[in-house]
User: Fold this.
Amino acid sequence: MPPRKLVETLEHMCFMVLAGNIHQIAVDLEEGVESFKVSEEQLASIVESLPAVINENLITKVIETIHQTVSRTRRTIGMATCLRVLLQPCVQTLDLSGLFFKMRLPGAINMTIRSIVLKQVESMKNLTVLNMVSKCSDEILHMVSQRCKGIVDVNVSISDLVTDAGLKALAVGCPKLEKLGIYKCWEVTTEGIEHVLRHSKNLQRLQSDQLGSVLINKFYKSDIEFKLTHFEQTQTLFEPLEEEIAWVGRACPDLESASLFLDDESLALLPKLGDVKILEVETSAVLGKGFVKAVTSLGHCLTTLQLNCDDVSQEKLVLLGKQCPHLTTLHITTATVEGDERLLNPGHLFSSLTSLHLQVWKEAVISNECVEFFLLWCFKLESLVLKAEVEFLTDQYLNRILLANPLKQAKRIIIASDKHVPLTYASVHRLIASCPNLDNLGVSSWNLTEEEFFQIRDDAKKNNYNLMIS
Assistant:
């Protein structure tokens, strides 16, 4: 049976009650309730007296409370007051990402948020982490560069008001910067990225889909050594010369991961980067000799492989299993899995896998042999995502799989199809009985009636299972 839901901790209950009260006071203040006796200054003084760790936790909890209100009423009243009250000088970790990921806000509200953050950050001299995904601006980065000299982690991805100017200020003014996220900052150019790489001497991770082209075009053959642990180039096709990719490996000796969009010929050059453990590859080319060379050379150190390609042959799956004995995460997104010969696992391939995501695009068919190749032998699986046309996957078939491999470690199982998954209500109960750690089960395209779907949810709630049905 799935694990029971744990009793909500007293700590979390207290935080949520306090967050709700702060939000309600802020709402009353902005609505001008005449009988209300507490001023914004008094509320700010109370929050200021709290330890920094409680203050920081309250920020995320109040954002959660605001999200619930916005979802229910579409009203953002109280948000501005909450931010002015909670963004205190003692804050070291300022995570406002929930304002983007949890709710869509009008432009005027976003302007208000940026204005408040700009003013409050001026006094945050102890700030070490700033997460302002989608909400940041050059003005805020300039203020951070002037006031927050100890900052080490900044994420301003998806912020169209961040430009090269803001990045340059941050790189020069914050010498301890180790992590910087600038994905989809459309106004940032290669000039700004180059400036960051030249001046941020302690930078270990730069989340930018142009990193590869900037390194090679601006620094190739220089004597500079970078502390980067992650290398990527996904904005455009990465087509380096052998000597260029070898230089990257020498210039970045600490690389542990890479994310690249490249063809098969360039795949053969990946071992020049060094012993990377985590590899994300997107290619529209047929996996050929380049892929074979890369996997053969890097397989001994790979723990994670994410592969997005047009097709994967059965031969390549066997190669991966043989060459990558330490692989714990394998995510494959492809148009088809091809092969004429029987796909057989002798029993030891992919034995270390804990996460298997296999997605075959649109309505392409995946064979039962391919499913069995993994599921009969991956005894350590914790996360299984299978998205493909699986007409053969009936209750009887799944039962046969579970008899051989009960998936006792599985926490997440999602089986889906654009058309139809033949699994029924019986298989839901079979998985719940077989997987004692299961907390996420995706059944949206199964052969279930609406009544059965809600019955499963009601049963999970009635039995207090920590199980999400989606």
